[in-house]
Amino acid sequence: MSLEDHLGDIIRKAREGAKISIVSAAHATGLSEGDYRVLENSGKTARKPNLLELANMLDLHGAKLERIANGWLPTVPDLSLWRELRQITTTGPSYQVYCYLVWDEVTREAALFDTGFDGTPIFELIEMNQLTLKHLFITHTHEDHVAALGAIRQRFPKVRLHSGSKHAPVEQRNRANDFIHLGSLRITNRDTPGHAEDGVTYIVGNFPEDAPNVAIAGDAIFAGSMGSALDHVELAKQKIQEQIFSLPPDTLICPGHGPLTTVAQEKANNPFFS
Description:
The protein is α+β, with helices and mostly antiparallel strands.
């Protein structure tokens, strides 16, 4: 699997967040404006750009940015460590989005994190494993993450919703110290706004056999990158550092797009963070 964001996506997000012009960024790389535009659009360019100079201008970590350019990918995790965790792929008009299902192997109570575009694979997984869907946690309310919400609520009218949206009914809004027991599993929430005003990362812990925690992050962070934040880049970075990078290093990060990763790998390789 390739990264959600190629090199060009990363520098474009950083440049737009820093309000740096394409002309200035191109000058820093030593490329023409045309070649620089190709770099942002494709992640590739015929001439080798000066990424260290560009990283300094864009407040990116130069060595990590070069690592991305050289093809870094996170180590593929052994998902058998989390017997009751499934990543579900749903496909929209032009791209894919992930949602996640966890359950307690004894009670068969399940929790869904986001809905993706299509409820069909979710329904099939629930039926195949004879689960009872008790909770639906929303990482943020962008359309690709909640498109199947109506279908899921119609199929499971008693499912309890959890959201960081200030527009949600009071009984559905997360509170800072909330924790939900799902059999032996324990689910907590951490606010991670920036990409979205209502962004939330959910932490699932107490997996059998001491499997590491799982952080279901929506679009707050991707392997090697982060969600677009435009006018809220510093807030987004601050929240990732405070709420995600403070988790144990072996915590599995489950993003809405791109490969799975861990806290340790992102701290070591994500160029948005020193």
